[in-house]
Specification:
The structure is a homohexamer. Chain A has helices at about 1-30, 35-50, 55-70, 75-85, 90-105, 105-125. Chain A is mostly helical and about 130 residues long. Chain A folds into two domains: about 1-50, no CATH class; about 55-129, AhpD-like. The radius of gyration of chain A is 15 Å and the shape is globular. Chains in contact: A-B, A-C, A-D, A-E, A-F, B-C, B-D, B-E, B-F, C-D, C-E, C-F, D-E, D-F, E-F. The interface between B and D is medium-sized, with 18 and 19 residues.
């Protein structure tokens, strides 16, 4: 059953952003390999793979939370990509980040938009939407 | 044009939660009446009324941001109501708040869920979904 | 295996604070019963029950994090109790909270100490250390 | 020299808000009496009593910081009073708190203004400006 | 009237830091040009240009808020410059940032001072105070 | 007595991380030399040198607080080193940082672990544990 949970998580994380799933494993394998298993199991196997919200909405939740908190730049970058992978358009992401200005202040919005701009450019360089 | 902007904002805020729009005006009229005008104009007239995201998604953005920040309880309560008014189901809100545990920690999720429970009960008491 | 993980978590959470384990289940059972299972599994079964740190040190970690963040009062109260249950003395807890003033500012320290004072008094009322 | 520092701090804290200085001592005397001495010495003796900024400006700094952080309500209340004691007008405080909306978001501003409203009413009840 | 508001904002933002006003427009023009208009209108046209506080005090408010929050480095840099432009002395800025140590912790103060040091050196290189 | 306090602080900060004590003095000597004295006196002379907690536990408190707050990277780096100097093993630090995922979210944990990885590698390069 634990295996099932881990595999469901792995499937979900790969569907969101296969490249990043590999990077996460790589980043943690020497220092905290168990945390990799827990994150896949809990974040992706338990929570993100639940049927109650589609993946696109889930990525909007994550992008909103991370840009409002303003202290998790590497993860915001990952989830800006993941949101696009899950079917958000660039315009929708920009709408989300503009709205953050209302609730978390204009600097939080500007800093997230600066990251979005980088992500959009990077993807353009690779020929992705 | 400024009037147009204010009226668009007022219409939006009333569509989201008419009762709360009144409370906001009431709360600010003695101490900072201009801020009431700015909030209606900027938050609701400029940003929230933009066509790029539907109101339901916008409320999911706000609920995600406020529950992740964890220091804006009165506004989270308002927007849990607004999310329901905008067509979110209770189950969808619970999914959003569970996901916050992954990105902002379990306490942020539990505190937002405790507020959601109160909002759900209050609405039930009034015969609303 | 999943069952094993849940039971290990349940055992750990009950060892820390049996009363609170019950309250958590009660709080979540109507609104987000699956989250209760995830928290027991991930927070307590995966992380807190790991052998690499004793429970007393783990509670010091939690009390430090929550008092520095300053936006999780109900959880800080739970973990002030849990720290005492795990063998921290009151004096040790006070030392931890005083140190928070250096890193998160004097208000964060004062607010956590005010909660500690309430927890100490409450336990005294029940004849507990 | 240490005594001099403590006395300078005590003089400053009493000048800002004599009543609150007493409450702080009272709050800490049983649980962390040394912290009371450190706060008077460091916060008020070392920093706040420095000649480089007048007390009114210093209180504006504190009110700005605490309202932006949004997780130190009891201290914000103290410093709203202290700002008024130091010569800020109510209108100036309202200007400061409105500006917080730009940098920390509208909820941070609204929550601080709600506290300011309470403080203003309380002082009116006592016949103070 | 809307035009009046935008022009008042533009005038204010240029008075604070003309170079930065240009950078903001540049940064947003491709990704969120409307947000540029909203920021000029709301932040600068509505709020910052209000007569109730002089510009120097307004920049002290902003520097205090941003350094306490600690997650808006690019904006803190802009407003350290803006504060100097508005008539703050370097010594006054240092006093503000030292005081942040009391309320938001020593790391927040040290990180803001490190940025101030860079800004001061940069301006020296350009022969500005 | 003030001298005694400063010297006790200096001794403590040097015991924790002599190299960093020098860097702190260097960083502040031009811009805020008095703050250097206050930090040594208050943070290290008053608080950290108190006998109520051993230095290893004190560093665990600091690492927990800073990684949970997530906006004090340079100080987290200093205190990851200090924790190792005070007798924490790498495994213990990793346990602390994994636990932060539960209370402050997975991004806070991952970002602190990424810094720990750098610190561990840097020390390895210098032949230190």
């Amino acid at each position: 059953m634990e295996d099932e949970r881990f595999h469901r998580g792995l499937e979900t994380v790969r569907r969101i952003d296969a490249e990043n799933a590999g990077r996460l494993e790589e980043a943690l394998k020497d220092i905290a390999p168990d945390l990799y298993r827990y994150i896949i199991g809990f974040a992706f196997g338990d929570v993100i793979s639940r049927p109650g919200l589609d993946l696109k909405t889930r990525e909007i939740v994550t992008v909103s939370a991370l840009s409002a908190m303003g202290n998790a730049r590497p993860q915001l970058r990952v989830h800006l990509n993941a949101a696009l992978n899950a079917g958000c358009t660039r315009d929708e992401i920009v709408e989300v980040l503009m709205q953050i200005a209302v609730y978390a202040g204009i600097p939080a919005s500007l800093n997230a938009l600066a990251q979005a701009k980088e992500v959009f450019a990077e993807r353009e360089g690779k020929g992705r939407t």
